[in-house]
Design a protein that fits this description.
single chain, Rossmann fold, 2 domains, 6-stranded mixed sheet, 4-stranded parallel sheet, 11 helices, glutamate racemase activity, Asp/Glu/hydantoin_racemase, Asp/Glu_race, isomerase, Glutamate racemase
Length: 254
């Protein structure tokens, strides 16, 4: 089984690790776009074009499924990607974890990029899944870029800015950009109130296996390979991405 993942940057590593945990025998293809990142400030048409280019590079490896591990690309490009690749290759989009975060009825903060924060897509999710819960939309400018940079000072500054923009009443925080899941411990530590964090990576892995009618076999032999494309060029995993990857999967990766 081969699973491809597309994103503007390193955010796809969280979903890739979630797939690797439930199917260590699956080959993974990671395709992101350092030449065009971040996608958020770009026009929707350009986001779609860049997501299609990344997906096209991954599709050359003949994957069994394609995960759009990016909220911005899901918002703007998912219909086009499905038109291009389905039904031959199932395309799975990212849905911010607003529903589980709102289930307890406590105030929720949704951290996301500026583009996603102000999107009709996110507003619709809040209306559908949290109609009676206080939901605070928190734009996090520069946080995804800081994750890609791996610079601790940039990360801390961007996290602190987002924490200050989050009302004190918030008990659950939705990590509405896949990049943010890579720094979950740092985000949690920055809050004096220790809110519970909700990501989408595990749900993406579960939905992908469901679409493929495949079981989770976490005890399978870890034979899965890793193939990386950066803006269409096949490369090794860059050092910063490698550090995130190893933190997500402490054991050696074949």
């Amino acid at each position: 089984m081969r699973i491809a993942l597309v994103d503007s940057g390193f955010g796809l590593l969280a979903a890739a690790a979630a797939v690797r945990r439930v199917r260590p025998d699956a080959d993974l293809v990671l395709s992101w776009d350092p030449d065009g990142a971040p996608w958020g400030p770009r026009p929707p048409e350009e986001i779609t074009d860049r997501a299609l280019a990344c997906a096209g590079a991954a599709a050359a490896t003949e994957p069994d499924a394609l995960i759009v591990a990016c909220n911005t690309a899901t918002v703007h490009a998912l219909p086009t990607l499905r038109l291009a690749f389905e039904p031959a290759v199932p395309v799975i989009g990212t849905v911010p974890a607003i529903k589980p975060a709102a289930a307890a009825g406590v105030p929720v903060g949704v951290w996301a990029t500026v583009a996603t924060t102000h999107s009709a897509y996110q507003a619709d999710l809040i209306r559908r899944f949290a109609p009676d819960v206080p939901v605070h939309r928190v734009a996090c400018p520069g946080l995804a870029d800081a994750v890609d940079s791996g610079d601790p000072r940039r990360l801390r500054a961007a996290i602190d800015t987002a924490v200050r923009a989050t009302p004190d009443e918030v008990k659950h925080v939705v990590l509405g950009c896949t990049h943010y899941e890579l720094i979950g411990p740092q985000i949690a530590a920055a809050f004096p109130s220790s809110p519970e964090l909700f990501g989408s990576a595990a749900a993406l892995a579960t939905q992908t296996l469901r679409r493929l009618d495949q079981p989770a076999t976490p005890d399978a032999a870890p034979t899965g390979t890793l193939t990386v494309f950066q803006s269409g060029r096949q490369t090794d995993l860059p050092p910063v991405a490698q550090r995130y990857w190893q933190s997500l999967l402490p054991s050696p990766v074949p």
